[in-house]
């Protein structure tokens, strides 16, 4: 049975391991000092950014990070920024339930849309995403900004 809940302080080590694996998947192997501490503090505060964990048999096997932002063309929208499940949990409905939980949360906050990005070649994830959401065909462009 999969349970989805907000992350508790005791979940920090498992969350950090999964988030590090997620970052490595996207080629971000080295994070700046304090990165995980800062993100964890934001998630625990639950004001600007939010996180949920998926547990199976009491062990965290998936995480999701998300936040609300305004839109120029609608009411607020919910952006799912990070979604990751441990390799052994894949194909068991964990990611689907994490997405559903964020959808429910966003609806309760008055958001009119939930959306996310993934890499075009992330074929495994896209098998699920194509079932639970609509690909609107947008391409993302990015410019790094230096402080």
From TrEMBL:
Q: What is this protein called?
A: GNAT family N-acetyltransferase
Q: Does the keyword Cell wall biogenesis/degradation apply?
A: no
Report the residue ranges that make up the N-acetyltransferase domain in this protein. 2-147
Matching entries from InterPro entries are given as: Acyl_CoA_acyltransferase, Bact_Acetyltransf, GNAT_dom
Q: Which PROSITE patterns match?
A: GNAT
What keywords appear on the UniProt entry? Acyltransferase, Transferase
Phylogenetic placement of the source organism: Bacteria, Bacillati, Actinomycetota, Actinomycetes, Pseudonocardiales
Gene3D superfamilies, per the entry: 3.40.630.30
Q: Carries keyword Nucleus? A: no
Q: Specify the species.
A: Kibdelosporangium philippinense
